[in-house]
Write a structure and sequence with these properties.
The longest helix is centred in the C-terminal third of the chain and has 25 residues. Helix content is 46%, strand content 5%. It contains twelve helices and five strands. A three-stranded antiparallel beta sheet has the order 3-4-5, with no helix packed on it. Strands 1-2 form a two-stranded antiparallel ribbon. The protein is globular, with a radius of gyration of 20 Å. The chain folds into two domains: 103 residues, no CATH class; 118 residues, no CATH class.
Length: 270
Amino acid sequence: MEKDLIHLCQPDGKKSCGACCGLYNYADSRKEALEKRLTQRTRLFRVTVRGRADLSFFSEKVRQKEDQGRLYEVIYCCEYLGFLDAGGTKVGCLLHPRQNGGEDLRGVSFYGRELCDGHVCPSYHYISREEKLALIEIIDDWYLFGLVMTDIDLVKEYFRLVGEAVGEMPRHLRFRDPRLRDIALRFFRLKVEWPFRSLDTNRFGKYYFDGSQYMIRYIDYESLGCEKSRFDRIFMSLSSVFQDGEALRRAEQIIDENLREFVGTYARKH
């Protein structure tokens, strides 16, 4: 891991990530549903918890009030994940000492204090420093940030294609240009707006889950009468399903147009 750690969980004052706490594992993981869940939970915590002795009551109330349906039963959804700010822009641990006058309450959580304090997701290792800094510049929404930052293939493939097209990996400061930022943001928003996304409930990115393990859902290009797309990794990350070759070509056009727009704007500003 790099010496100067970039804290992906809480990168700045505008957003954060709660993916490792099971944030996206609820049966209804749409942004509006999670926002409502976290807002109500945070209010309950602020009203009922004055110390460690109140946590069991809080936990029981959350389980009674919230829909406990999950996408994957083996992935735990922590009831102590909430909003850390009044504006609801940063998700995080309500048990953290910074939220409780310096008292660390994480020992009561499912994973415990040591694991919560020391865990880092694979993105810390596999996404490069410049890619991390670029994403922090591009995305300010907590919901999208967590979905994208934990999708290693999507991130690395986009920046690889962009880098090859412009002849270099753009420095993260370049994304302070509103035009370049907007183009990249429109690409990453495909994570929630992709028109060819599979509606199967057991899909999560390129993976599907059979109840005991993750497996990769590959795209059957042969059945479409097409060769493997150069955007294959992106399509799998977006949980794509194509009915025919024409749908595949429309999908390729969406990605290709975004890349072309980025290259043209980058060249004019370089």
